[in-house]
Structure formats: C-alpha cells, structure tokens
Amino acid sequence: MQPDRPLPALTRAEQDFLDHYLRILELLGRINPASAEYTYAGVTAAQALATEAAKLRDALTLMYDRAEKEIHREPLVRALRILGAEDRLRRLALPGPGPEPDRGSA
After folding, report:
1. CA distances from 7 to 10, 11, 13, 58, 96 (A)
2. What is the mean pLDDT of the chain?
3. N or C terminus of the chain with fewer C-beta within 10 Å?
4. How far apart are CA 84 and CA 74, in angstroms?
5. Cα–Cα distance, 77 to 70 (Å, whole number)
6. 18-67 pLDDT, tens per residue?
7. Distance of alpha carbon 48 from alpha carbon 5, whole angstroms
C-alpha cells in the first residue's frame, strides 16, 4: 500500500526500526486475547514476534553504531501515522468497559 502523503526523509536504519516496530504491533494485535480466535494463529504470531524483536534490536543497534544516538521523534511519529500505526495500536486495546469485577462482601 502506497501512503497518500510522502514519508519524511529517514535513514535506512530508521526505516528498518519503524518497519520492525510496526510488524511487532501487528503481531501483538494477532495475539491479543481480546480479539484472537485461534491458538495456532497466536502460536505463529508469537514465534514471529521473537524474530521481529531481534530485528528491531538489530536496527536500533545499527543506528547506535552509526552514531545515530538520538531518536528523532517528530519525523518518526509522522511516518508512523502515515504508515497506519494508530490502526495497529487500536488492535492492542481491550474492548469498551466491561462489568466491574466482584470484590466480595466487605
């Protein structure tokens, strides 16, 4: 899917950082007990999550090794919004408020 707005200029390491971060959000959404339907989908998502976490670590390590010591929030947040991070984050949320838990008699 091609974004409607152009992405801000990012280093290749920043692009990898965002790609793996978004993939992790997507995988966590598939594992979310509030929306998951099948255990097998959760198992495969959890397996992929470990791989993506390592790739995210590697992207951040590369940024650090290249002297990219700071996270430049504004362009990264702009890119995350363009790439649909907010939709992925919604999949992590619990549904609306449920009944209050029974706390027993006082």
Report:
1. 8, 12, 15, 22, 33
2. 88
3. C
4. 16
5. 14
6. 999 999 999 999 999 988 888 999 999 999 999 999 999 999 999 999 99
7. 29
Q: 57: which 2 tokens?
A: 């670590």
Q: Are 29 and 35 in contact (CB under 8 A)?
A: yes
CB 41 within 8 A of CB 104: no
Tokens standing for residue 77: 């947040």
Structure tokens at 26: 């997507």
> What is the C-alpha separation between 8 and 70, in angstroms, rounded?
16
Number of neighbouring beta carbons within 10 Å of residue 56: 19
Residue 85 amino acid letter: A
pLDDT band at 81 (very low <50, low <70, confident <90, very high): very high
Sole residue written with tokens 């504004």: 74
Structure tokens at 67: 């002297």
Backbone angles phi, psi at 23, to 5 degrees: -65, -40
